[in-house]
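FORM 7B: Structural annotation worksheet

SECTION A. Query
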Amino acid sequence: MSEKLRPLDQAEMGRRVRSRREAKGLSRESLAKKLDVSAQFIADIEYGNKGISIKKLYLLCQILDVTADYILAGGILPEDLDGETSRACEEIMAILQKCDAKQLKGIGKIAKIYADEVRMK
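SECTION B. Predicted structure
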């Protein structure tokens, strides 16, 4: 396998947790209570000093109304997509998952040309 895997950046993950917690108007204490952990544990996550179990991550995602992909890797927030856009993304991803690297590069070039053309209109 020649794919280069990205390491988990706990500091970035922590920043996303903090940003989302603050956007939801939650204190560390209130988030900690909902997760059944200490406020210090939340601080440690936010500073990138500690990781989080799968079970707590699952609960955290529900509390903060985000996907695990957003927390772990900075994916798209659910509210960034409307229903139609979300369905279109899912359809496109299903197609892309069946493509090899050469096909993906070609599709990327086509998408860039199309997007640039639409922007000019």
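SECTION C. Observations
The mean pLDDT is 86. DSSP finds seven helices and no strands in the chain.

SECTION D. Sign-off
Analyst initials: ____
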